[in-house]
Amino acid sequence: MKHSVELLAVALSLIAVFSAGCPIQVEKNSESDTGNLSSAKEITAFSIVNPSAVGIISSTSRTIDVTVPAATDRISLVAAFKTTGVSVRVGNVPQISGVTQNNFTNPVVYTVFAEDGSTAQYTVTVSLSGSSSAKAITNFSILGRPGNIDEVAKTITVLAPYGANFSSMIATFTTTGASVKVAGVLQTSGTTVNDFTAPVTYTVTAADGTSVNYVVSVPYPVLYVSNSNDNTVSVINGLNGNGITVINVGNGPAGVGVNPVTKKIYIANSNDYSVSVINGATNIIQTTINLAGSDPQMVGVNPATGKIYVAYTYYNDYVEIIDGGTDTVLTHYETSGNYPVGIGVNKNTEKVYIVLWGDSSVDVINAVTNAFITNINLVNSEEKGGVAVNPVTNKIYVPDVSVSGAVTVINGTTDTVTGSVAVGNSPISAAVNTATNRIYVTNKGDGSVSVINGATNTVITTVAVGSGPLGIALSERHNLIYVVNENANTLSVIDGATNTVIDTITVGTGPTFIGLLE
């Protein structure tokens, strides 16, 4: 019996060894094996991590809708999700729940892969709360000055007060949009500082993610003052008195003419018989026009025709006429009398008024044809200075450079003298504000400016300025008047609302005349 048991044990051992060395092959039914792989491929949960927002899943349409706060930047959001599939991709990028970032500005398609290789696509839309498309700036102001909003052109214009610091301004605004940015910087009304030396673009984004741009401008007049003793032109910000630059021009700069259409400034150089043409956009001399005559003094501009008129005051009895498009001399007009000086243009009536200093009269010529129309003899035979035209009332004002002091008033319809207004000592230049119908006259002999009511032809007040006031210019938009004080080398700034001097600006030596571009 003992031997039988031992034999049985040996036999079992041999069977075990044989089985280990020669495995058994199991045939598989390939169809039944594939059927064991899962075809599940649903997204069962979806949310945005920050800001926290839970998505609403439609298993029927395979869409997921998520709403986040209105101010959310949807460019790089992270989603957390659960799925019955084995993997999820957006495009070719594998998605890791709670980690992978996506741009949800537009709908994003998530592709879910099942174990059996089949796929399902879910379209995820992340909307801003409210989903409003409203994105208007409804109110805008700087330094308490309300802006003029042009909703069609999407522009905002603010007229800042005198003395404003353009490089550091804070805007107060209201908007129907979700956010407002300038060059990518989020704007907070009444807090964020911007440089308004040049126009600034405000981008307003709606709750639905759409956006619109508003261009905000804080315009200021640019002043050009000719300095006859140092052959320069001072360029100044007319709203704070800050110097922009100084331009070297010809010898003995005198009269200044500005074309607001072409943004060119024309400087008559009396000692070298030329005109310097300055590009108002760059404040660089664009060209120099050499003239045939001598001692060019005064400049007139017709923005309607583009013609520039240069008067030879002392040695030639004619006016040079320049094509402002090509900056070349077109022709010259021979005056009916001696010593042309002041030149005024009424673009509405197409007339040019040329004051003849030597014989106390005014030539009137056609602005289009350059033909002589008439000559107006003035009441006072004293020497004359500049001329100012009000195209709205069609009145022309000619100061008498005399001790008695008066301004002759001409009716532009009949081209006849209708009266005169007594002013200060030696009035020489004048400027008109058509919006207020006020005429400002520099009295060189007593350092003052007379303010005339154009409706009544009476002096409202007299404003004391610097010594030897000569040239004058004004900004209708800002109701500011600028007076060149030749003997003091300064520029007086008058507030047209109060008729008071609010600033005195130092310029070059021997300043004479001034032009204004805005």
Describe this structure in words.
Helices cover 5% and strands 51% of the residues. With 518 residues, it is mainly beta. The chain folds into three domains: 43-128, Immunoglobulin-like (Sandwich); 137-217, Sandwich (Immunoglobulin-like), CATH 2.60.40.4120; 222-517, Methylamine Dehydrogenase, Chain H, CATH 2.130.10. Strand 3 (56-58) and strand 4 (63-68) form a beta hairpin.
Keywords:
six-stranded mixed beta sheet; 2 helices; mainly beta; Methylamine Dehydrogenase, Chain H; 518 residues; Immunoglobulin-like; 51% strand; 3 domains
Amount of beta strand: over 45%
Q: How many domain units?
A: 3
Relative helix content:
under 10%
CATH superfamily grouping of the largest domain: YVTN repeat-like/Quinoprotein amine dehydrogenase
Strand order, main sheet: write it out. Answer: 3-4-10-9-6-7
In the predicted model, the low-confidence regions spanning at least 5 consecutive residues are: 1-34
Distance between the termini: 129 Å
CATH topology of the largest domain: Methylamine Dehydrogenase, Chain H
Radius of gyration over C-alpha positions, nearest whole angstrom: 41 Å
In DSSP terms (H or I, runs of 4 or more residues), the helix count works out at 2
The chain-level mean pLDDT equals: 90
Q: Give the oligomeric state of the chains in this entry, treating copies of one chain as homo and distinct chains as hetero.
A: single chain
Biggest sheet architecture: 6 strands, mixed
Top CATH class of the largest domain? Mainly Beta
- Per the principal axes of the C-alpha atoms, what is the gross shape? elongated
CATH architecture of the largest domain: 7 Propeller
Number of strands: 48
Task: Decide which structural class fits the backbone.
Answer: mainly beta
